[in-house]
Amino acid sequence: MLADDTDRRAARPARVAGRISQHGTSLAYRGSMSPTARTAVQDIQRALARGGVQEIAFSAEAQPDGRTTLGLVWPSPVVEPALGYPDLGVLVLADGSLAEPWLRHPDPVPGAVPAPSADPELLEQTLRERLPGAVGATEEEIAAAEARLGVTLSDELKVLYRVTRVYGGGDEFDLEEADRAGEAVGCELSGLEHLYSVDAAVRHPGWDHGATHAVSTGPDAAVQGLAGSPGWIGFGTNGGDEFAVDLTPGPAGYFGQIILVDHEQSIGADLVADSLTDFVLGRMREEVRGRRADKLPSEAKVGTGCLETIQAAAHPTLEVLSIGASDSAPFSLAPLVGLPRLRTLTAIPGTLADPLEVTELTGLEFLEIGAQEWRVLLDAGAVPRTLKAAAIKVRDQNHLPVADLANEILALWDRPKITQTLLAGDLGPPI
């Protein structure tokens, strides 16, 4: 990569940084990657696989005369990779801690009823016509599945597995029956014994995403805006995403409606049918989602192209505030003091007027600020002890001084240190 850099040809130091894992990369690299650079990345990925290392963060700097330093930051149980970004990652300060969206449970739905289109008799008739001779599950097997899941299945889902349990006798997989069942239902169908709850644990419960998002369910929502629910019963896939019967619908939803859980998303699900009957008969629909104009958002962004002031974002329901680049002077955090639900603050370097104002935010669980701002807090002994996770936002992606700073933060919680390796050499002048 450095060999491709125009900076060295212009007698300026050249820098490159990022993360390389066995299966992907996240690189701070300008322009398209050359074939030589792609080959180098592939060589590193093979080396990681041979060494049993999942990923590594790195930063390198080459002087115009060829003097070069390469820093490697090794994987750590206390550093969670920041997906899609070449940063060092998220420091997990409390062992086993999770961001708030992963802890949110579904709201009770005592008045939820099946959709008018839910018709177990029509569903059974349709499935038996499409699957003559299929072997269904016994009532005892269905009851065992309910006991394992801790829920009462919808009448329609019980009908589905009374017609076909997908697996043949002796628990041996019957590919032909599975294919026929999938065609009859409209998705790749799971066996009764493989039904599962789509809970938060199976949906990328990472701090980098969860800390910066808030979950909410509007009064007109058909699906609750959750990371997962014990009442989302996954029964099939489209090859990547999961179809689930929703036993904990939103205020405007139906008990037993069919939702699609996108594997690329970590929060929420999409309504695809009001009932399993509709789903099998191909009567699909989509939920129209949108925030009510009279409802203040739980997430807010301040900076160019977003809200202009902290005051505009500050309100009692605010949970997550992100401060980006702005042409105005650095922001004061004073308007945020006393907000009862504020749990996350992220700010790019140089946007805080006084980093010590962070200490007045007494409910913070996650804090991402620049290295200089962290330095101010550390020197003053003012790092909020309410934090469960933290991140250091850097502009040049140089992980070496950031790793040292991260170790100071980790030491406050007696967490293991990050291990880094520094190599120095000479690549010679640019070709």
Order of helices and strands: HEEHEEEEHHHHEEHEEEEHEHEEEHEHE
Specify the overall morphology: globular
Helix content: 10-25%
Number of DSSP helical runs = 11
- Beginning-to-end CA distance, first to last residue: 13 Å
Output the radius of gyration.
26 Å
Q: What is the SS-derived class?
A: alpha+beta
Detail the poorly predicted runs.
289-295
Average pLDDT metric: 87
The total beta strand count reads 18
What topology, given as strand order, has the largest sheet?
5-6-17-16-15-14-13
* Sheet of most strands: 7 strands, mixed
Strand content: 15-25%
Give an overview in words.
This protein has 431 residues and is an alpha+beta fold. It contains eleven helices and 18 strands. The chain has a seven-stranded mixed beta sheet with strand order 5-6-17-16-15-14-13. Strands 7, 8, 9, 10, 11 and 12 form a six-stranded antiparallel beta sheet that branches. It has a five-stranded antiparallel beta sheet with strand order 2-1-3-4-18, sandwiched between helices. A hairpin with a 3-residue loop joins strand 1 (14-21) and strand 2 (25-28). Helix 3 (120-130) packs parallel to helix 5 and helix 10 (371-379) runs parallel beside helix 11 (399-412). The chain is globular and about 75 Å long.
